[in-house]
Amino acid sequence: MSEVYAVRRTRVRERCNAGGSAAALVSRPANVRYLAGTAPEGAVLLLGRTEDVLVCAGPPDDRSPQARPDEALRVHVVPGTGGDAAVAAAGLAAAQGVDSLAVEEHHLTVARHRALRSVAPRLRLAGLGCAVEQLRVVKDEEEISCLRIGAEIADQALGELLESILVGRTERHLALELERRLVDHGADGPAFPTSVATGPNAGRPGHRPTDRRVEEGDFLSVCLGATYRGYRCEIGRTFVIGTSPADWQIELYDLVFSAQRAGRESLVPGAACRDVDRAARQVLDSAGYADALPVLTGHGVGLEIDEDPRLTPAAMGKLDACVPVTVEPGVHLPGRGGVRIDDTLVVRPEADGGPELLTITTKELLAL
């Protein structure tokens, strides 16, 4: 991986130099990890004039090879305790004779920005923009492999839960059990707080589990994700508890399933992001559910669970190959519940078989 990290840093440096800066300070944690490998909390990366340095508030944990930063980087540990790695990195840049340092202004606080100026008053601070985030959009096959393994773990955890007794258990208990199963199967941890929603809560985006107990006839919607080697994926499914689904539940489920399929089938290289959203949204809109729809149909995933691109009505840009995204339409009816179906897929050209589905738990409306 050392060569991969070096290539990534070179690409950022080229963008930095094109903007007139000889060095860059990367402080956003996901961006540091992308360019340097695993790094301690609070670490920053200096892409310097003479060398690249990982600046840490404390020494990296070298007990596991997977927890070590790129071995090609020099590691500088800030002396003492409570030191700010970003401030120390600015001092190192000034010592290298750099006169302009590009920083991630969207991540630095005002106080931290002032601290950088105070330690190196002759250093001109320029904006790096979202250069690293833009590079992170298209994944290499190693990154996709991590997402694929994370998806397999999430599928396993969900599949085991579906084989257990659910009636009478609380949303909160089921969410905690799912997160435990993720770790048992090899995940670093959950990719985000697990959502379990029953009855009138089902289908509500971002629902936080409560002490409501599962009852027969409920819709049960589950949204969970696994983190594997830093990469995050997600899956969402909806089921009916303990009895055959009612006619209205079948009708609503089939509609959301059709919308999700339309979105998945639109994932081709060159497709406009807003067109993917439109493909899924118009299925639900035409059935009269315009007011019950979420604000987006999907989003990118990777080192963060919510990355570019965004699949929304106002989204700009087009999809590239090897971009992992979610497709997660849903409908929530206040007081009744709803349906959400969520998959993680990788955009692939038709010659390679079209979009690659990473989350494979059945989308059949099961009565559990």
TrEMBL record:
Q: Which UniProt keywords apply?
A: Aminopeptidase, Hydrolase, Protease
Q: Where is this region: Disordered?
A: 190-212
The protein's matches in SUPFAM superfamilies, at most eight in alphabetical order, are given as: Creatinase/aminopeptidase, Creatinase/prolidase N-terminal domain
The UniProt entry, under Gene3D superfamilies, shows: Creatinase/methionine aminopeptidase superfamily (3.90.230.10), Creatinase/prolidase N-terminal domain (3.40.350.10)
> This protein's superkingdom?
Bacteria
State a single Gene Ontology molecular function. Answer: aminopeptidase activity
Q: Which InterPro entries match?
A: Creatin/AminoP/Spt16_N, Creatinase/aminopeptidase-like, Creatinase_N, Pept_M24, Peptidase_M24B
Residue ranges of the Creatinase N-terminal domain? 8-138
List, for all copies, the residue spans of the domain called Peptidase M24: 146-348
Q: What is this protein called?
A: Aminopeptidase P family protein
